Amino acid sequence: MPQYENPWTIPNMLSMTRIGLAPVLGYLIIEEDFNIALGVFALAGLTDLLDGFIARNWASQKSALGSALDPLADKILISILYVSLTYADLIPVPLTYMIISRDVMLIAAVFYVRYRTLPTPRTLSKYFNPCYATARLKPTFISKVNTAVQLILVAASLAAPVFNYADSIYLQILWCFTAFTTAASAYSYYHYGRKTVQVIKGR
């Protein structure tokens, strides 16, 4: 049986805030308002730091939903940022395609895990009920590194037109390193597979 939990925790609300900021950032980048975009990106980064800190230090704020919602918020934010920065000619198309392809596969895997861990009879109301906790996700170490590298590249790319270093060789090196960690992260999920999912038993 699944564990029934309260989804309305502070970390989960912070993750939802990050998801809400994603389209705002995308709009600002497309409009080339990079100064404000940097500020909004810093706010989104703060919500990411806070939700992890709170979940680690207050047991009542930790949830199975949060274990999926936090990385999902990161992926939505990163996907919108990379598409927008590619549109603004600040990040190359192949890198964005690589990142989004990996994230689409991971999100599909999360939905599949949700379906497989639901008790029978499986219904849509159960599937989309955030109070039903059926599995806890554990990201791999290289995946955490990859998320950090992707966000560093976003920050560097947002700052590039503000501080006039869009053609820097260091940005191009960062593109390559981001591609490497993205590929390594995808492989780590393929290799470790089931070890990244902890099925929750009812209490």
From TrEMBL:
Domain of life: Eukaryota
Keywords attached to this entry: Lipid biosynthesis, Lipid metabolism, Membrane, Mitochondrion, Mitochondrion inner membrane, Phospholipid biosynthesis, Phospholipid metabolism, Transferase, Transmembrane, Transmembrane helix
GO biological process: cardiolipin biosynthetic process
GO molecular function: cardiolipin synthase (CMP-forming); CDP-diacylglycerol-glycerol-3-phosphate 3-phosphatidyltransferase activity
Membrane-related topology note: Multi-pass membrane protein
EC numbers for this chain: 2.7.8.41
InterPro entries listed in its UniProt record: CDP-alcohol_PTase-I (IPR050324), CDP-OH_P_trans (IPR000462), CDP-OH_PTrfase_TM_dom (IPR043130), Phosphatidylglycerol_P_synth (IPR004570)
Keyword Membrane recorded: yes
GO cellular component entries: mitochondrial inner membrane
Annotated catalysed reactions: a CDP-1,2-diacyl-sn-glycerol + a 1,2-diacyl-sn-glycero-3-phospho-(1'-sn-glycerol) = a cardiolipin + CMP + H(+)
Cleaved signal peptide residues: none
Subcellular location: Mitochondrion inner membrane
Major localization class: mitochondrion
One Pfam assignment: CDP-OH_P_transf
Transmembrane segments: 99-115, 145-163, 169-190
Entry's family note: Belongs to the CDP-alcohol phosphatidyltransferase class-I family.
Task performed by this protein: Catalyzes the synthesis of cardiolipin (CL) (diphosphatidylglycerol) by specifically transferring a phosphatidyl group from CDP-diacylglycerol to phosphatidylglycerol (PG). CL is a key phospholipid in mitochondrial membranes and plays important roles in maintaining the functional integrity and dynamics of mitochondria under both optimal and stress conditions.
Xref: PANTHER family: CARDIOLIPIN SYNTHASE (CMP-FORMING) (PTHR14269:SF60), CDP-DIACYLGLYCEROL--GLYCEROL-3-PHOSPHATE 3-PHOSPHATIDYLTRANSFERASE-RELATED (PTHR14269)
Protein name: Cardiolipin synthase (CMP-forming)
Organism in which the protein naturally occurs: Callorhinus ursinus
Lineage: Eukaryota, Metazoa, Chordata, Craniata, Vertebrata
